[in-house]
Amino acid sequence: MIEFKLPDIGEGIAEGEIVKWMVTEGQVVEEHQPVVEVMTDKATVEVPAPAAGTVVKQLVAAGETVPVGTVIFHLATGAAVAAAAPAAAAPVAAPVAAAAPVAAAPVAVGVAAGSDAKVLAVPSARRVARELGISLSQVAGTGRNGVVRRADVEAFAASGAPAAAATPAAAPAGTTPAPAPVPAAPSFLPGMGEEQRIPFRGVRRKISEAMVRSMQTAVHFTVVEEIDVTNLVALRGKAKALGAEQNIKVTYMPFIMKAVANGLAQFRVLNGHLDEKGDEIILPNRVNLGIATDTANGLIVPVIPDVQAKGLLQLAAELQDLAARTRTGQVRPEELRGSTFTITNAGNIGGTLATPIINYPDIAILGVHRIVKRPGVVETPDGDRIEVRHYMNLSCSVDHRLADGADAARFLAYLRRILEEPGLLAL
């Protein structure tokens, strides 16, 4: 019998919240099969079974937070499985005659939940599968080691493949089948359905705690700069084609990340954090960029280290890989800590301006916003002319305890200079 203790998921982690049990008591599990989803202030991870066996007892309920080292479930393995089996089977040991009514009971449509539990899938994929009535055993996983991702479930649903269902029993002889139900008339007004009550826990609660801590600790102020990114749009188009040859998706972010890293090397007061216990402002000699990533479970901030030492294509490749693994729940805990500055980019969704909240304990954060086309004045040797240009706003929120408005303004002026003439990045 293994008494499984909540493991030390990451450096500095003292406790974890049991978000969801992925198996039931009495269920047989395989080695490495996900058993429970645990949330810390760093990440949400699926904790696997240490060995094949039977989950005999769950000692902590979903929603509870317990210290690292707490026994959270009992796993029977080897001889213990055989010993536990008679007890589990005792309620079923009834007269054979009693089995007849059981066999005659209606069979639920769909695949048993237990079969889905054995399928390796991220939490968001399981939730979408439940909502759409799809068995995960039907979905081919494209994640690492065949893990089913949310996109796999959505693609399966879009393909129109039939969901697994029990074969209906034949109607008794001499009976008339019931008429098929008449479909309801289509409604042209979207219905909101019933009131929803969502447990306030997991990623959502950790985001809440982090945001409140940041707002109550840091003294926020925000500086905004408008940038003409017409030349950047053109250069990115060429880089996108080059990246595609190596299966690398080149977005605007690698250019912005490199410009930020270069800028922070000159304006180091924005790159680091406050050591409140030691009464010191820590200004590292490297740039580790936290990249705020929108996921089905909430906002997660993985970190790309040493951006100052990497080229654009390398940054594009790392960003592509890290974002994909973050959205599928495969990011590692160590990849979620150590940021010295953060970038949040909602430009692909919309919005021309925002005042981002600092990712505690960083000193500053940069908000990247939507690119828009509008008329602009261009200076030429023959005078000014008006033409269609591309513009984008950057907003930098800074902790006023540690830096001044002039620091943020100079930093953004540097970014404007580099991103308006992105060829300068080669210098």
Please supply descriptive tags for the structure shown above.
eight-stranded mixed β-sheet, globular, 427 residues, alpha+beta, 10 helices
Describe the secondary structure blueprint for this structure.
Layout: E1 2-5, E2 15-21, E3 28-29, E4 34-39, E5 44-48, E6 53-58, E7 65-67, E8 71-76, H1 79-89, H2 99-104, H3 113-117, H4 123-132, H5 150-158, H6 203-217, E9 220-228, H7 230-244, H8 253-266, E10 273-275, E11 280-282, E12 289-295, E13 298-300, E14 303-304, H9 312-327, E15 341-345, E16 364-368, E17 372-380, E18 383-399, H10 405-420
Parallel strand pairs: 12-15, 15-16
Antiparallel strand pairs: 1-8, 2-4, 2-7, 3-6, 4-5, 6-8, 9-18, 10-11, 12-13, 12-14, 16-18, 17-18
Give your account of this protein's structure.
The chain is an alpha+beta fold and 427 residues long. It has helices at 79-89, 99-104, 113-117, 123-132, 150-158, 203-217, 230-244, 253-266, 312-327, 405-420, and strands at residues 2-5, 15-21, 28-29, 34-39, 44-48, 53-58, 65-67, 71-76, 220-228, 273-275, 280-282, 289-295, 298-300, 303-304, 341-345, 364-368, 372-380, 383-399. Strands 9, 12, 13, 14, 15, 16, 17 and 18 form an eight-stranded mixed beta sheet that branches. A hairpin with a 2-residue loop joins β12 (289-295) and β13.
